[in-house]
Amino acid sequence: MTVVDSLWLPRSTCDVSCLPARSDGHVPAVTMLKRVVVTGTVLLLAALSVPILALLPQRGLIAAQRRLARAVLAGLGISHHAVGRIPQSGALLVANHVSWLDVVVILAHAPARLLAKREVRAWPLIGRLAATLGTVFVDRSRPKTLPATVARIRAELAAGGVVAVFPEGTTWCGRMGGTFRPAMFQAAVDAAAPVVPVRLTFAQGGTPTTVAAFIGDETLLTSLRRVVAARGLSIELKAHATMYPQPSSSRRVLARAATSVVAA
């Protein structure tokens, strides 16, 4: 079964107008000194982790990436918690996509390998760290490479691994979301692996917020500065009921069902 027809280069309708206004009383900020210290500490932690992680065996790498993710969240002053059953083996996690923090909070709770767009590989520091953690990179501009990417995900699932993907294909502000594309659901069908829809929700002081959204044409550093400046930021990872595809299951039906569950 071909999956080339599922390739899509989506574009979010969210832009900087979706972000909280600077004068918004729900967006308390930390001092400039603390922003500089926190940003430097997080970047240094990531930089020092790359050579260490590269030396670890797979089992040690899974444990280390969880500790690293939690250390990054703690350093940023972000609280996080998981709701529902987070799979520890042989499952495809499909999540909504709001921020680069999505990756960090998923790694803080699940022993997952990630799927990311090829462009992430070229990001300073982050690209090296992602590659070290075994991220699978997909070239969305070359349809002919998609079946091979799906086959890699299928093999990882069949071997008992957990793979996390963001089928919306791009980030949204959180108040609005996109449609899950079906291509990677085929990997779960072929591997007879369960699919777990995941909803990531951001709040600040208990109120839903878009402050962490990574949208539009802004740079990663711009987004990082805004996250560091925000106080009382929290992230909830909610795992919904597991879906069990059959050999005859349609990836498109699975994608629509997962979209509905996460959107609700």
Assign a percent range to the helix content.
25-40%
Low-confidence stretches: 1-7
What is the CA-based Rg, rounded? 18 Å
Count of discrete alpha- or pi-helical segments spanning 4 or more residues: 8
What is the element string, with H for helices and E for strands?
HHEEHEHEHEHEEHEH
Name the overall outline.
Answer: globular
Average of the residue pLDDT scores: 87
In percent terms, what proportion of residues is strand?
15-25%
Q: What is the makeup of the main sheet?
A: 8 strands, mixed
Structural class: alpha/beta
Ends distance: 30 Å
* Number of DSSP E strands: 8
Description:
The two termini are 30 Å apart. Helix 1 packs parallel to helix 4. It is globular, with a radius of gyration of 18 Å. Strand 6 (195-204) and strand 7 (207-208) form a beta hairpin. The protein has 8 helices and 8 strands, in the order ααββαβαβαβαββαβα. The longest helix has 22 residues, at 32-53. The protein has 264 residues and is an alpha/beta fold.
Summed up:
The protein is α/β, with parallel strands linked by helices and 264 residues long.
Topology:
Elements: H1 32-53, H2 58-75, E1 79-83, E2 91-95, H3 101-109, E3 112-117, H4 126-132, E4 136-138, H5 146-158, E5 162-165, H6 185-191, E6 195-204, E7 207-208, H7 220-229, E8 233-239, H8 251-263
Parallel strand pairs: 1-8, 2-5, 2-6, 3-4, 3-5
Antiparallel strand pairs: 6-7, 6-8
Helix pairs in contact: 1-2, 1-4, 1-7, 2-3, 5-6
List keywords for this structure.
264 residues; alpha/beta; eight-stranded mixed β-sheet; 38% helix; 16% strand; globular; disordered N terminus
